[in-house]
Design a protein that fits this description.
295 residues; alpha+beta; elongated
């Protein structure tokens, strides 16, 4: 018996009469299938095209939804999204950052967002906040160092301030001293990151007797970098100086440090960049060492 097509099988299964009349009727239907199969193929083709169109539209809609979701998760996906992010931010300095960003040209705004999404920027910027050994002179309450990267597009600033000590004081009174060490990153004139470590210590007028506490704080207006920190650490360290023919001098230095944990979303993955911020001060509040580098 010859093999039947799928359309022939459908027609034949409808017959229930096994008489001679039914046999001829089945044969007639079999012969007629060549006539009815054409509209069936056309119908199926039309349905297939409709399904294909619906499926293509669904894929396009899904892709657009995914792109929209990514932009919603990334406040710096577009210039308008970043401006809206700054406009609704409660971070201190957001209004200044918004004005500076809007003052950029469209090309500069696109370049700015490119910098924000480049994890190498954060790493290289913070690596440039390397240790120093001089600190501020005793007659200065505040001092600042700046380093430029990417042909001046990125500026890293380091500030040291001391309070609770009269300017140019030589004879110290007992009391508490507050020292701040701040690192900030500016991209095309927009300050996007600021990390601050504050330390309070007590002096008896001759030496540091206790580190009272340390506090870490941040300002993060990048929109793409997540920043947190571990518990601050404080301790006293010893120093001594001996000059030939004279009695040795010794005392204590105040130390404070904090570990910053940074996560940068980049091309579908998350890159972690951890940094240690550290400072050491003498009894005058002068930073004898400070840095921000890899933890």
């Amino acid at each position: 018996m010859p093999l039947l097509t799928s359309s022939e099988k459908v027609v034949l299964t409808l017959g229930t009469d096994h008489s001679e009349h039914g046999k001829y009727e089945s044969d007639f239907r079999k012969r007629g299938t060549s006539m009815t199969s054409r509209p069936t193929h056309v119908t199926m083709a039309a349905l297939g095209a409709a399904v294909l169109l619906v499926g293509t539209a669904s894929h396009v809609a899904a892709a657009e939804n995914r792109q929209s979701a990514v932009q919603q998760r990334d406040p710096a996906a577009t210039p308008s999204a970043y401006a809206a992010y700054l406009r609704h931010s409660h971070e201190k300095g957001a209004a200044d950052a918004l004005r500076a960003f809007q003052a950029l040209t469209q090309a500069e705004q696109s370049k700015f967002l490119g910098y924000l999404h480049d994890p190498a920027l954060l790493k290289s910027a913070l690596d440039k906040s390397a240790g120093q050994s001089t600190g501020a002179p005793l007659s200065t309450r505040k001092s600042t160092d700046m380093t430029s990267l990417y042909n001046g597009d990125v500026v890293i600033g380091q500030e040291r301030t001391v309070s609770g000590l009269p300017v140019a004081a030589r004879a110290l009174a007992s009391g508490d001293r507050t020292v701040n060490y701040t690192t900030y990153v500016k991209v095309l004139g927009v300050k996007v990151i600021k990390l601050n470590l504050e330390m309070i210590f007590h002096s008896n007028g001759r030496d540091i007797t206790k580190v009272i506490k340390a506090d870490a704080s941040k300002r993060n207006l990048s929109g793409v970098i997540s920043l947190s920190h571990e518990k601050e650490k404080t301790w006293l360290s010893n120093w001594s100086f001996c000059e030939r023919g004279k009695p040795c001098d010794s005392g204590h230095l105040a130390n404070a440090s904090v570990i910053w944990e940074g996560n940068v979303a980049y091309r579908g993955s998350v890159i972690q960049i951890d940094k240690k911020q550290y400072m050491k001060a003498n009894v005058h509040g002068k930073l004898t060492d400070y840095y921000l580098h890899n933890a």
